[in-house]
Amino acid sequence: MKVVNFAETDSLVSQYMTELRDVTVQKDMLRFRRNLERIGEIMAFEISRTLEYADKEISTPLARTTCKVIKTPVVLATIFRAGVPFHQGFLNYLDHAENAFVSAYRKYKEKENFDVCIEYLASPRLDGKTLIIADPMLATGASMELSYRALITKGEPAHIHVCSVIASQHAVDYVRKTFPKDKTTLWVGAIDPEINSHSYIVPGLGDAGDLAYGVKE
């Protein structure tokens, strides 16, 4: 499985990551959402370079000419709720893609013991398509795996791009073990070394859903 870690090279992603992590900048929810969106846009552009293209003949006001358009059928999927602004970044660039949505959440049995529950799925058929699953925080990898399992009830994609802003090393290893190695690419803004007893990424950035949309009860 190929892993693309944007932290390994200098780019605009580094600027947006700094603002996402900074507790003072995080107070601006609009900026937090927009930074998630912008990283999604950059990842969408990079993924677009891996897709297949076909020639299309068009008319300009002056003459006929041939351009290239995306041939690969793409489905953009996200996990509610923190994934929504991140997903929008991908959709801003891959605006002809189909879309899928999954509800995955932690159901706590005890203070530090929880199950991941899937309650909602809306997806087109995935057979032979390129599936992009966008979720900003990849802490344990469990939500991502269960979401993927739910999605493939709609068909088997030709390739899977797993996209996160921050992943823990634990989650990267987990995705390596649980996703098809020969057709999965993992894209991350940064890989952090650990998760704490609450399964939050350290140093991470906190709860992305709360920072994007406000604290939940």
How is this structure best described in words?
- It is a single chain.
- The protein has helices spanning 12-21, 29-48, 83-93, 142-151, 169-178, 208-213, and strands spanning 2-5, 53-59, 64-70, 74-80, 98-110, 113-122, 130-134, 137-138, 159-168, 184-192, 194-195, 201-202.
- By secondary structure, the protein is α/β, with parallel strands linked by helices.
- The chain has one domain (2-209): Rossmann fold, CATH 3.40.50.2020.
- Strands 1, 4, 5, 6, 7, 8, 9 and 10 form an eight-stranded mixed beta sheet that branches.
- Helix 1 (12-21) runs antiparallel to helix 2 (29-48) and helix 2 crosses helix 3 (83-93).
- 38% of the residues are buried.
Query: Helix count?
Result: 6
Structural class: alpha/beta
Q: Give the topology string: H per helix, E per strand.
A: EHHEEEHEEEEHEHEEEH
Give the CATH topology: Rossmann fold
Mean pLDDT across all amino acids? 94
* Portion in helices: 25-40%
Low-confidence stretches: none
Distance between the termini: 38 Å
CATH class: Alpha Beta
Give me the count of strands: 12
Radius of gyration: 18 Å
Biggest sheet layout? 8 strands, mixed
Shape: globular
User: How many domains, as an integer?
Assistant: 1
Strand content: 35-45%
Please identify, by name, the CATH architecture: 3-Layer(aba) Sandwich
